[in-house]
Specification:
291 residues; alpha/beta; Vcp-like ATPase, Chain A, domain 2; Rossmann fold; seven-stranded mixed sheet; globular; binds S-adenosylmethionine
Length: 291
């Protein structure tokens, strides 16, 4: 991601300015998965991007106005237009109008728990090898960022989450982005994953909770042979302890990965790495269950 506000430290600092407090409305998809080319319509979320690349996510509502320091834009001016247009606020300032991507939603949606950022979500999909119909146990589900990423890739998810408020936030976020039909493949239970996993013959176990090593023995019996376990951990100490548990419970092919994402400034003769980058978010550790 190139969003410079997407800064996350070891404790995954909350990016308050970059969030919206209102529930995000479903994107412009008719089946929850396939973007379609049609005019913007009332009820869908759109991004307004100003000249300084500040991004605002609004839900198009007839009669409402979007206000900023450069004046206001009537939602009615946008409804019926095509995305990609540039509109002018009444005082000054142009705004580019685009439908948000999944990464935009993840960064802007209401949060309970801190989310995994897009820079790690993409690689995580590959390391966990998520495929349509994959039977996945995910825990904790937090705000649902990882859930919606895996669901959009076709996974069928049982989610275990300790906190009822986070579980309900995740379900709201996921259905807002992917539509209510996704609940056929997304069930979230309020429970402690350290105490066990009921599912069997799982294809994948994907973890983002403080002590993933407490889940390893349960994953060893819940995963089918060849199944993959992945844990996201903010610190290397957690990754090391998780690796030790993987060895102790007979997992193979373990690897720990850190994803570094450096954007470049490219303007005329000035071609160099950007001064700022997200220096650290977390570590991704993955392994296979063997027979
Ligand atoms: C950092 S958040 C997960 C964020 C999520 N991956 C996302 O992208 O939105 C960690 C979550 O793990 C949950 N959690 C912590 N310990 C747990 C446990 N033993 N069982 C289930 N969930 C747990 C927390 O309540 C919290 O919601």
């Amino acid at each position: 991601m190139t969003d410079p506000t997407d800064v996350a430290g070891t404790e995954r600092s909350d990016d308050e300015d970059n969030q919206v407090n209102e529930p995000v409305q479903a994107p412009a998809t008719d089946d929850g998965a396939t973007p379609v080319a049609r005019p913007l319509r009332a009820g869908e979320g759109v991004l307004l991007i100003d000249g300084k690349q500040r991004r605002y996510l609004i839900t198009l509502t007839p009669g409402q106005e979007f206000h900023s320091h450069t004046g206001f834009i009537r939602h009615d001016e946008l409804i019926g237009r095509s995305e990609g247009v540039t509109v002018r606020a009444n005082r000054s300032g142009n705004f580019l109008v685009l439908r948000p991507t999944l990464a935009d939603y993840v960064l802007k949606m209401p949060r309970g728990a801190q989310v995994i950022y897009p820079k790690d979500l993409g690689p995580l999909l590959m390391l966990a090898d998520i495929f349509p119909g994959a039977r996945v146990l995910e825990s904790g589900v937090g705000s649902g960022a990882l859930s919606m990423t895996m669901l959009r890739a076709g996974a069928d998810i049982a989610g275990y989450e300790l906190r009822a408020d986070f579980a309900s936030r995740a379900v709201k976020n996921v259905t807002a982005v992917l539509g209510p039909d996704v609940l056929d493949r997304y069930r979230v239970e309020e429970r402690d994953t350290y105490e066990g996993i009921d599912e069997v013959d799982l294809d994948r176990v994907v973890l983002d909770l403080p002590e993933p090593w407490q889940v390893t023995p349960h994953a060893a019996t819940a995963l089918r042979p060849g199944g993959i376990i992945v844990a996201y951990t903010p610190t290397i100490i957690q990754a090391v302890q998780f690796r030790e548990s993987l060895t102790a419970h007979g997992f193979a092919q373990a690897e720990t990965v850190e994803v570094l994402n450096r954007t470049w400034h490219i303007e005329g003769q000035s071609v160099r790495p950007d001064h700022r980058m997200v220096a650290h978010t977390g570590f991704l550790t993955h392994a296979r269950r063997v027979a």
